[in-house]
Specification:
single chain, 252 residues, alpha/beta, TIM Barrel, three-stranded antiparallel β-sheet, 8 helices, 41% helix, binds zinc ion
Amino acid sequence: MQKTPGKRAVVVSVHDVSPLTGVRTEGILRDLRAAGCGRVSLLVVPDHHGKGRISQDAAFAEWLRAKVAEGHEAVLHGYRHLRDRSEGDGWGRRLVTEHYTAGEGEFYDLGREEARRRLEAGMGELRACGVGAVGFIAPAWLLGAEAEGAVREMGFDYTTRIGTVVDFKTGSVHRARSLVWSVRAGWRRACSLVWNRALFAVAGAGPLVRVGIHPPDWDHGAIRRQVLELAGAALAGGGAMTYQQWLLSRRS
Ligand SMILES: [Zn+2]
């Protein structure tokens, strides 16, 4: 990682933004704004679990346009978010794609052609809502090599993984591990609280602090409070940026 003079940057991302999660996302953004974070990368799922395309929901499209106009960034986040199960999946693959991600790793092992089809369809959905996107972030951060090839060919500026931000324009790979919480079970929540506090003790001193929020996080008071506390602490020493803004600042 290159040394950055000056202030630290904080990028907060809200994953899984769609008509299925719109109301909760609005609450998250309100709480973040109150904590001093007015700029967020919104990871939009164009047809979340196949339950409705964003272009067909006029209220959602209007909401998304308004958020981008306020300074938030729309990022393409898969197409349906779900991974199609494959008959040939061995135990190792199933462990990664189903246990680790609850079957949400849509771009984990897609072929290049199918990835490209979904990326084009996804960008079409965003355009139909009146917004653009220069970043692609795979569901569960699982982006296979073929799918990454399609993302590069499509001309996206960047992607992120759990431990890196990859700038396709410059070839730079910036190391910064994202804080992220797992709330599917009580033991996961307990572990998440301990893990993220420890991670923040290290990552909080770096030039880029990444905070990844999923809408279900907000249903758990202890998680919500810690997200806001750590984001607020990071923001005390730096400014909130979107990924797009942060990469632009790194290139200049
Ligand atoms: Zn997601």
